[in-house]
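Mods, move this if it's the wrong board.
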Amino acid sequence: MVLLCAFLWLPLQLPASNDYSDHRQLTERLEALAGANPALASLESLTTTVGGKEIWLLSVGSGELTQRPAVAVVGGVSGDRLLGSELAISFAERLLDESGRDEVRQLLDSVTFYIFPDMSPDARAQYFAPLKYERFGNANPSDLDRDGRVGEDPYNDLNGDGMITMMRVEDPTGKWMKHPDDSRVMVKARVEKGERGGYRLLSEGIDEDQDGQWNEDGEEGVFFNRNFTYDYPAFSRGAGEHAVSEKETRAIADFLFEAKNVFAVISLGEADNLSHPLSYDPRKTSGRIISGWLEEDVKINQMVSHIYRSHLDVSDAEQVAGSPGDFFQWAYFHYGRFSFSTPGWWIPDAGEEDPSFGSKELNFLRWAEGKGMQDVFVPWEPVDHPDFPGRKVEVGGIVPFAMTTPPYHMVDSLLEGHYHFINEVARLRPQIDVLNLQKEELGRNLYRITADIANLGSFPATSQLGQRVRWVQKPVVRVELADGQKMMSGRTIDIIQSLEGHSSLERSWVVQGGGTLVLRAGSECAGFREIEITL
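Not the wrong board. Structure tokens:
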């Protein structure tokens, strides 16, 4: 087992115009988009975090946005992955830039995009701060170690380089050792192979509260990706006092629960069911509490994963099914929508011979060196440490964000695949239509109407799990009779539990009385079709 040798970061000095956008720059880009495209884009702040940063929502589409299927694109799910926010806003910029093309304009006329560029602005800001470390929590003061005190053991920059990396402490009882192929990398000694450790590996800092832990209670508060209701990890670090306790968490949950037209949520975060789809496990779906994707939904995941892999190289990806309290799982299990997630980038394989022994750090260093990347590693440097008097303590390791966030020059190529992927998902949306309409006069002022209620899209009108969730509207077929008409057979309101992709159901009605009636079928997340029928 290997512990990441550092909190990670990119090269130390990059021009602002050639680096990821901070919150101010992201806001300016969003405002520019909305200002330049008033007919297609609207910007609103759902809330302001404790740290004073807006949670932005950019709605993109033409016409009545709530009356047709929608895709939610969510960035900033995890504060250490800046690529997610960059892909989200860059997707919006390219979509609007290409809105003059017939293919894109038709998409914007039929699909709504709800784009949340950054759900962790307080945490993401640490990338741009004077002291850089991978941060996950917001600015809400929290007792992360639950000892009755708040923020008493923050990060300490022992070598004065403006970053928090790691420190290795010589200790004959320690379980860590230097990697035999690269002394920069620390790995756990394999006792079964006769190896002995000689180091303790800790986060760079001082045990301010003398509780035997380092940096366990700093400035950061609750983690966005650990504060949701599904599998909520109560009393764990970053989970908050209760589920959905934070302003940003509640803001997106409240909005999405009201947004009945969303059929799919695409998260740009740590979880990954796109490079490798989830598997159906009947043991997880047969209990009172469902903990696995239902069988028909897994098939949709497989279809969408195939599309994703057709646009992006995922040969280096590892499947991450989700974590307790995360947004990705909440969107499926409690919101009832198809939920897809990807980190968007993986460290390319650099040919590490033993992937089970120091693979991540050693593979990254080899890849970075092969690309000529500079400033991705802080050489181990001795420091005098008050917690370990008279002992050898060194500070160093991979710099913060380097292993979770690719160099900025890679963003354009990564956007290319994700842009086409998200658009293709939108084109496969559920689409309710009324086909093969027939009228038959039966005599005695009676008329029979027969029609096929069809779903022309590849997605079902509702997910299989969504059929059990009250927040997902099922397709409804309504017959609105004219004055003097009477329904003799058939339902004036018919709720369809589900309608699979590229399938149809026949419905028939017998109506007494001439005149014009209205047949309306659909739902917010599958679209509506309305037909006037004169008898």
